[in-house]
Amino acid sequence: MEQTFNDLLRERAAEGRSLFGSAFWMFSETAAGIFREKTTLMIKRNKNIIRMAIATFLILLIPFLAMQFTDDVDWSVFDFVSFGALLFGSGLMYELITRKSGNKAYRAAVGVALAAVFFLVWINGAVGIIGNEDHPANIMYFWVIGIGIIGAFMARLRPLGMSRALFVTAAAQMLVPVIALIIGSLRVGSSQEIFYAFKVLTLNSFFVMLFVGSGLLFRQSGKAESIEPKA
């Protein structure tokens, strides 16, 4: 290494370059090489995250371009930022949770659960599930998500524990319209109110099925891990 360094100095001296210029050139070349190596390594390690960022940007282009051609789409800057953060955040959570797991059932379970949370937050925040987005009863849906998060922490993301957490989350989701009926946020006095309550129950049932489906996938993942031969 010392011989290589001396050869470089003699070569630069033969070209008529100063010692300072040679040292600066070697420093620049070394720094550039380290930067290229670190950048390449970072891209390889985080290629999925980079793909998610690109996918998020492309998806956000759809409503942005739609706004240029129609008045039916009217998103504010807050809408773009919140939707982009929610979309990218969901993808990032999926990547972080499933990065070390090769179990397909576990990865599918995480994907279904995050998709349910994503659509629950977005629909509830954009137009509201019960009434409009400002209706106080819709706060209960954030309690449902909170129950799921607490359950995930208690389960430490282990499949069988996550299965139980998702089943509890599904039960909490199912209780929301029942509580709304009890407190009067949903009414069934007229045919129009009955029809609206039916739509709310149907939408809630959709999220219940997603949470239950995720719980079943987590259970399947846990059973598969329990029967795998240990090394």
Folded structure, characterized:
This protein is an all-alpha fold and 231 residues long. The chain folds into 2 domains: 9-45, no CATH class; 101-231, no CATH class. Helices cover 81% and strands 0% of the residues. It has 8 helices and no strands. The longest helix has 36 residues, at 191-226.
Outline the secondary-structure elements.
Elements: H1 2-14, H2 19-45, H3 47-69, H4 77-98, H5 104-126, H6 139-155, H7 159-183, H8 191-226
Helix pairs in contact: 3-4, 4-5, 5-8, 6-7, 7-8
Structural class designation: mainly alpha
H and E order: HHHHHHHH
User: How many beta-strand elements?
Assistant: 0
Q: What spatial form do the alpha-carbon principal axes imply?
A: flat
Largest sheet: none
Terminal residue distance: 44 Å
Radius of gyration: 27 Å
Write a concise synopsis of the structure shown.
The chain is an all-alpha fold and 231 residues long.
Question: Which features would summarize this protein structure in a list?
Answer:
2 domains; 0% strand; mainly alpha; 231 residues
